[in-house]
Amino acid sequence: MKPLQYSLSRWMEGGGPEAEIVISSRVRAARNIKGYPFSCLAPEQENREVLEKIKAAAAGKDEFSAFTFLAMDDISGLEKQALVEKHLISPFLARESSCGALLLRQDEAVSIMINEEDHLRIQAILPGLRLEEAWTETGRYDDLLESELDFVFNERYGYLTACPTNVGTGLRASVMLHLPSLIMTGQINRFLGALSQVGLTVRGLYGEGTEIVGNLVQVSNQVTLGHREEEIISNLGSVISQVIEQEQTSRQVMLDKKRAELADKAWRALGLLKYAQVLSSQEAIGLLSDLRLGYDLGLIKEVDHKLLNELLVLIRPGCLQLLAGRELENSERNLERPVQIKETLERFRRENN
Question: Which of 115-129, 156-170, 212-226 shows the lowest mean pLDDT across its residues?
C-alpha cells in the first residue's frame, strides 16, 4: 500500500452556514452485526470475520466505488495520527482496535470506521452548520450497509452498542465551534452548565478527554436512548443557534469597545505566523484563533476560512510530519511548523493575487 498523502478534507474547505463561528458539523452512527461480540471484547478471529463481512457488503454496492479501504495494520502510526487530526478516525481506532479498518470516501466527507468499539461507526463531517445534511449522508450509507448486514436491534432499546450512552439511535451529532469572545470574557462557564442540563456535552478539539485550546469547542449530544434521530439533530441545532447568537453579540460588544486591540492582535498573529522561526502546536493554535477572529470581524483580509482550517490541521504533529516526509522529534517539529505555515501562506498569496 502506498503511504497516505496529505490532502484537504471536505470540512476543511470552509464555507457553509454560520462559517464565522461553526467550523464543522459531524453526525456518526454506531452499529453492530448480529451474532458477534462487540469489537472491543471479541477475539481477533471474530473481528476479522466482521471485517470481511463489511468489506463484502460495501463491495456489492456501486455507491462505495468512490471509497478507499485502509486496514489499520497496513498504515504507519504517523498516518493514523494524521487521520485522527483530520477527525476521520478516533484515537481508539488508531491505537487499540483489533482488525480495525477505514472506508474513506474520496472527498473525505464520509468515513466509516470498522472494528472500533463497535463493528461500524459511520460518520459524515461537513463545513459550517450542516447537521441535517451530515445526518442525511450518514443515514444514506447506514441504509446501504443495513440492506446487506443484519444489525443488532432491540424493539425496546433500539440499536445496541458497546457504550451504553450510544444505545438507542446510536447517533452522535457534534458541532465544532470557534468561541473566542465567550471564552475570553468568561461567559462560556454559564453555558457549560446550561448545556449539560439539556443533555449536551462540551469537549475540546479532539473530543472526549481533550482540553479546550484555541477557543475551539465541540458540542454534542450525550445520550441517544429515548430520542428519535430528528429530535437529536433538532435539539442540538436549536442550542447551537443560541450559542451562535450569544457569541455574535459578545463579539460586537468587544468590537465596539476594543476594535484597535483586536485588530492589533490579529495582525500580530499573522506576523508571527509569517516570520516566526520556532512555533509550538499550542502557540500556533492560539495565533490562528486570533487571526480567525480578526478575519471574521472584518479587521484583516489576508486569509479566508479554507486557509485557516488547513493551517489548523497541518500544524498538528501527525500531519506536519506527513508533510515533511519523515518522523520528527518535538524540537524538530517546532522548527518545521513555521516552514509549512510559510509555504501555505505563500501559496495562498500567489493563488489570490
Answer: 212-226
Which residue, among 177, 11, 14, has the nearest Cα to 110 in the 3D structure? Answer: 11
**Nearest residue to 347 via CA among 300, 321, 317, 314:** 314
**Cell numbers given for 2:** 502506498
Bridge partners of 153, per DSSP, are 159
Which of 9-18, 101-110, 181-190, 325-334 is least confident?
Answer: 181-190
Using DSSP's 3-state secondary structure scheme, residue 210 falls into: coil
Domain holding 274, by residue range, is 259-351
For residues 349 and 353, what is the distance between their CA atoms, to the nearest angstrom? 6
| Residue position matching grid coordinates 500500500 | 1
Can you tell me the distance from the alpha carbon of 105 to that of 20, in angstroms, rounded to the nearest whole number? 26
Please give the single-letter amino acid code of residue 217. Answer: V
* pLDDT tens column, 101-111: 999 999 999 99
Return the closest-CA partner of residue 297 out of 348, 247, 238, 241.
Answer: 247
Which residue stretches of the chain are H helix?
A: 44-59, 77-85, 91-95, 131-146, 180-184, 188-197, 229-275, 281-296, 305-314, 317-324, 330-351
Other beta carbons within 10 Å of 226: 11
Q: Does residue 268 sit within a domain?
A: yes
Please indicate, yes or no, if residue 347 is contained in any of the structural domains.
Answer: yes
Residue 31 and residue 119: Cα distance in Å, rounded?
6
In a domain, 202, yes or no: no
Give the helix/strand (H/E) hosting 221.
Answer: strand 216-221
Under 8 Å between Cβ of 212 and 236: no
Give a yes or no: residue 209 inside a domain: no
**Domains: count for the chain:** 1
